[in-house]
Design goal:
Elements (H helix, E strand, L loop, with lengths): L16 H7 L8 E6 H5 L5 E5 L4 H13 L9 E7 L12 H14 L1 H9 L11 H4 E5 L2 H11 L2 H8 L12 H10 L3 E5 L6 E5 L1
Antiparallel strand pairs: 1-2, 1-3, 4-6, 5-6
Helix pairs in contact: 4-5, 7-9
Length: 206
């Protein structure tokens, strides 16, 4: 299912907090879902409503109930998600649980596309781990190598080299940050998601 189609009406290791702030500025998104009455759909008519998805499951269900109550078909009860937008690349199913919709939409509304990358990077069966975002997210970076270089600095590696290696040899001693970052990814210590909207990558501790 695409994030917008024509069928519907218009409508770890902890790093300093400032490092997160510097790399976390993302455009504001307001995820929405279009919920449709299946009784009407099966009868050949469109009846549904766009809802702000960044609400509690209870508030979303109240909106769905109001939509069904306004159906011209008495007793309409069944519904499905027939469209959605601003979910930052996350794919929703027609019968996605409202709990999942709420968690993802609230996360995207708060954190932007970074949370969408986190949700999309998890297996659907692991969406119970969505709340681990704050513990795992390391920010948006120009590349994995940039993140690795910054992590090495935060760990004090340059200072260790300075103390352990004679000054005359320090120019010949360095850490291969590109290989370090690549190995962290290969070993499953971090996972990396491309930021298709602004370039760069999102980094998460596993």
């Amino acid at each position: 299912m695409s994030e917008k189609n024509d069928r519907q009406p218009e409508r770890q290791q902890e790093l300093p907090d400032e490092r997160h702030e510097e790399h976390e500025q993302q455009p504001e998104l307001r995820p929405q879902i279009y919920v449709a009455s299946l009784s009407d759909y099966n009868a050949g008519r469109l009846h549904g409503a766009w809802l702000d998805a960044a609400q509690t499951p209870e508030a979303l269900m109240a909106g769905i109930s109001s939509m069904l109550a306004a159906s011209p078909i008495p007793g309409a009860e069944e519904w499905a998600i027939h469209d959605y937008e601003a979910f930052a690349g996350v794919q929703l199913g027609e019968y996605e649980s409202i709990e999942n919709v709420s968690k993802i939409a609230l996360g995207i509304a708060q954190h932007g596309t970074a949370f969408g990358a986190w949700a999309e990077g998890l297996d659907h069966s692991d969406w119970q781990d969505l709340e681990r975002f704050d513990d795992c997210y390391q920010g948006r970076w120009e590349s994995l190598t940039d993140y690795a270089e910054d992590l090495l600095d935060a760990l004090g590696i340059p200072q260790i080299i300075e103390k352990a290696v004679p000054e005359t040899l320090q120019a010949y001693v360095s850490i291969d940050a590109e290989s370090f970052g690549r190995d962290m990814s290969y070993n499953g210590d971090v996972y990396v998601v491309d930021d298709d909207s602004a370039g760069g990558v999102f980094i998460f501790w596993s």
